[in-house]
Amino acid sequence: MSSLFRLSPTAPDASRLQRDTFAFVLSDGRRIDVLRVRDPRAKRLRLSVGERGARLTLPPRTSLVAGERFVHEHRDWLTDQLACQPGDVAPLVPGESTSVPLRGQLLPLHWAPGRVARVVGDDQALTLQLPPRAGPAAITRALRDFYEAQARADIGRWLPAYLPGLPRPPSRIRLRVLSSQWGSLAPDGTLTLDLALVLGRPAAFEYVLVHELCHLVHADHSRAFWREVEARCPDWHASRDYFREEGRRLKAALHVLLSA
What are the residues whose beta carbons fall under 8 Å from the beta carbon of 215, sequence distance 6 or more? Predict the structure, then answer.
């Protein structure tokens, strides 16, 4: 099998990111360009899909052959992910089936009559039940309530594992629509998280939770603080990169969906 990667004529500089692109053929026959990034901080191979397309991240000592094999092993997954990239999320229109983001996926959303406005479903598909005379505000409230319930369910699963070793638990946890931040910790111990986090990758959401919990130990962003984060979330760099690539799209999608 011929290589789909172009060999670099010189050895990569291990002290900084190295970027180039290569052509790759998907399972459905489409030919795409994949961004390849050799990252000195990366500890494992990672294939991701964002608003800019496909990206392969390689650790410093990983060979191009290993990278080629990794992409081929995940070719079907990559094809599916690129097929469902939304570009921009459209506002909901009653009765029109569409897709909405949840935990890094796009889930089909259908409509059905109901006694109260609410969203029901699982990780395969969602249904928005709506009374006959319900207006846009009811739709927005139902979707927001659904997203908040899903976010709190995730937090409830993750939080107990991180409480040991903290000086105290957060006094309460709030979910808000934030314009720029992903989270914050108030002096009284109130932890605020962006509701848009539940739209994206669960690992990235969990990282933000860990980040804010570590502020219970160190209120600043000192080296000691980052050591606390590293101890609880060794792969935090990947989540930070994810927000750099996808963060604006996630916040924009939530804004569109919750604008009545």
Answer: 185, 225
Q: Which domains does the chain have, with CATH numbers?
A: 18-83 (no CATH), 150-257 (3.30.2010.10)
Q: How far apart are CA 93 and CA 111, in angstroms?
A: 10
Query: 250 CB contacts (<8 Å, ≥6 apart)?
Result: 101, 196, 197, 199, 200
Task: Write the single-letter amino acid at 101.
Answer: P
Express each pLDDT in 230-246 by its tens digit: 999 999 999 999 998 88
Residue 234 φ/ψ, nearest 5 degrees: -60, -25
156: part of which helix (H) or strand (E)?
helix 136-162
Query: Rounded to whole angstroms, how far apart are CA atoms 255 and 120?
Result: 21
To the nearest 10 degrees (0 to 180), the angle between helices 75-83 and 64-73 is 60
Each residue's pLDDT tens digit, 56-84 = 999 999 988 899 899 999 999 888 777 65
Residue 186 confidence (pLDDT): 96
Beta carbons within 10 angstroms of residue 203's beta carbon: 14
